[in-house]
Amino acid sequence: MHNPNNKSNVACFASDKFINSLSELKNEFDFNLIFIKNPEKELHNYDFNVLLIDSDILEGEYIVKFINDLKSVSKLLISNSEKTINISFDKKIKRPISIIDLNKRLLKLLTSKEFSKNSSIKIKEYKLNKNEKKLFMGKKFIVVTEKEIQLLELLISQKEPISKKDMLNKVWNYSSEADTHTVETHIYRLRKKIVDKFGDDNVILNKKNGYLI
């Protein structure tokens, strides 16, 4: 479910007492707070990047495992200092907390998650990390150049093969020192890296009318 006011969503799995206190201050936050009673049934209904978790409601191995298995979201745990929770989280904040501090912590997680999301691109069974300039398959990776990243981004944006001239235009802007041989050379080097590391010769396909992923 997309939010209508363009604010990011933060899902909140908390006790009734904590939810009631936050409900009265919802307008003080710079994001939408979505209160969840049953994560397994409700979380798939919303588009969110951060989960706020109240440690007081984390009872039972099943719910702990479910939340630990949520790999694509950042988690902020609100916890009593004396309570130990067997759960993975990105940040932890102890009670008592101020609304200003809570808002700041959640915004930081939202920004970090959005940055990470925009910097990571899935390419078939690979993951391209633009920040690290690495193409991963599992734990294996190759280092890629800025031009190789641009080529990969261009190729995955195309549904049909793209010609060398179009690639030259979009990546090099027809600069005086570049021609179609420049495209061929960069594609060759990138494909060789992939083959040498992963043994995969089917990532970038050479079609009659251009290249395709």
Search tags:
213 residues, alpha/beta, Rossmann fold, Arc Repressor Mutant, subunit A, five-stranded parallel sheet, four-stranded antiparallel sheet, 38% helix, elongated
Please give a structural write-up:
- The chain contains seven helices and eleven strands.
- It has helices at 16-23, 39-42, 61-68, 99-119, 146-156, 164-172, 180-198; strands at 9-13, 32-36, 50-54, 74-79, 91-94, 120-123, 126-129, 134-137, 140-143, 205-207, 210-212.
- The radius of gyration is 23 Å and the shape is elongated.
Q: How many distinct beta strands? A: 11
Shape: elongated
Kindly estimate the percentage of residues that lie in beta strands according to DSSP. Answer: 15-25%
Mean pLDDT comes to 86
Q: Could you tell me the radius of gyration in angstroms?
A: 23 Å
Spatial ordering of strands, largest sheet: 2-1-3-4-5
Q: From N to C, what is the helix and strand string?
A: EHEHEHEEHEEEEHHHEE
Query: What is CATH's topology name of the largest domain?
Result: Rossmann fold
Whole-number total of structural domains: 2
Task: Give unreliable regions as ranges.
Answer: none
CATH class of the largest domain: Alpha Beta
CATH architecture name of the largest domain:
3-Layer(aba) Sandwich
Residues in helix, %: 25-40%
Total of DSSP H or I helical runs spanning 4+ residues: 7
Element layout with pairings:
Elements: E1 9-13, H1 16-23, E2 32-36, H2 39-42, E3 50-54, H3 61-68, E4 74-79, E5 91-94, H4 99-119, E6 120-123, E7 126-129, E8 134-137, E9 140-143, H5 146-156, H6 164-172, H7 180-198, E10 205-207, E11 210-212
Parallel strand pairs: 1-2, 1-3, 3-4, 4-5
Antiparallel strand pairs: 6-7, 7-8, 8-9, 10-11
Helix pairs in contact: 6-7
